[in-house]
Amino acid sequence: MAIFEIKNKEFHYNGEPIRIISGAIHYFRTVPEYWEDRLKKLKACGFNTVETYVAWNIHEPKEGEFNFEGIADITRFVKTAEELGLMVIIRPGPYICAEWELGGLPSWLLKYTDIELRCYNRTYLDKVDSFYNKLLPLLKPLLCTNGGPIIAFQIENEYGSYGNDKKYLNYLREGLINRGIDVMLFTSDGPTDIMLQGGTLPEIYKTANFGSRPEEAFDKLKEYEKKGPMMCMEFWNGWFDHWGSEHHTREPQDVAKDLDSMLGMNGNVNFYMFHGGTNFGFYNGANYDKGKLLPTTTSYDYDALLTEAGDMTEKYYAVKNTIASYFNIPDDLEVENTKKIAYGKVKMEEQAELFEHLNILSNPVENAAPLPMEKLDQNYGFTLYRTKVTGPKGNVKLTINKCNDRGIIYLDGKFQGIIDRTEQGDKKLDIIIDKEEMVLDILVENLGRVNYGTLLGEYNGITENVLLDYQQQFGWVMYPIELNNIDGIQYSNIKEQTTPCFYRGSFNIDEIADTFILMDKWKKGVVYINGFNLGRYWEKAPQRTLYVPGPLLRMGKNEVVIFELHGHDGDDVTLTDRPKFD
Length: 582
Ligand code: GLA
Fold this sequence. Notes:
Bound molecules: alpha-D-galactopyranose
Structural class: alpha+beta
Number of domains: 3
Number of helices: 10
Number of strands: 32
Largest sheet: 9 strands, antiparallel
Strand content: 25-35%
CATH superfamily of the largest domain: Glycosidases
Radius of gyration: 25 Å
Mean pLDDT: 97
Low-confidence stretches: none
CATH topology of the largest domain: TIM Barrel
């Protein structure tokens, strides 16, 4: 057992002064087979601590159904760090931001109409309590006070950027303490008065999050944290990308310079991110700015010290050199980049239309008005809203209030247009009803719920109503399409198709390695490898390839399924040995 504490404005571990050089790796963004590799590289770079958030929504995908296995096996991640001699910092949310769907909150919370997120609201806190009742007993034996590697726990996340409810923060603090979390607790906030006043608690250690100007940030933090050492809990050494904008990078020397000044001021640091990883499946979050939704890309490369695929970068070595000028770095750890293989072209051999598989992929719900996804008990993916409209009535204006996030509109199966929150401009569509009865389909994609700011907690799908001119349309059948399991699909031969389709192909390998799928001939959708959802691709910049970690492949035959919404310029993909960003 060990005590990690603050004394004389320093951290002490079992009575000895210690500095924290930490890096963030989110276990839920890297396949478990690679956890050891990434953690070893952290250690070999001179770090002594790993920090991770806990993403509630992967642990409780449906209310009351808990998952702590596979990529959700947090105790295995912590123990792997321990075996390498690393200390661990846990940031257990309940909200984590992190460019992760709904900031890590499970979307099923939203079906409770009296819920208010991130404040002292009984419904919300009851759900937090039942999650903490499962999570914290798993982590308690791993606390340093019980002989494990965990030295500290965060309360909430950058709460001052969101609210000012101290009763809520205190409730979370008590919830940790009452469940036996007796290690150091802390908060982290932006280095401004309003944020530090809103997000902190009087007796709880305070840290700050920032990417540059560490002197100024520590000066501000000092006004609020008078007893402890200075710590940057999120040193943004890179940044994330949105679909439709440029790929972010930051110069290694710039990062090394800011690190040097933090270390020179006796500071402590947690790199956000040491290794970013991937937003697999539908787990990316989104921002919202100036009337536009900005969904985060599948890659969470972050221009971090390790790439999305775990490779050591120039920034890795620049940071290692800076750390080495202050501390001894163990030189007995052998680390190398994992092998990458360009397996070449994979041709899609078969296809299956989404609209012909609705009853296999979905349990439809009927209702007069359209219902949002959350009221259909749907977490992620797509919802098809179907109704019959009468005619003929010529040209009418279709308005969807609101279409969250991207609706593709069909009349009698014929594509009419797209209403997309990631684009500015007219959110109405002209359609022509020229028959006595026509089927109106609106296929709405949840592009990733907002993870930051006041739109946190809004509904997805169609949230209010659908109008033809001024008239509300009633009588809907809704098909929730989560795409968790696509096994039941019946494929047939490839033919020209413009409605959403699954395309299937395969490739054979005699050596397993990492690879990247180049999606340059495809428009928008998701890709499955051997049944695992790798995440979204989109013809919008900047991400052109999807990362395929080697452990998802097997010797011999491997299956690729592409779910494409719009059509394609060729029927193959290329497996290459490097990522491509624009
Ligand atoms: C904040 C949040 C993090 C992350 C970063 C940006 O600091 O606390 O979760 O969203 O911004 O990457």
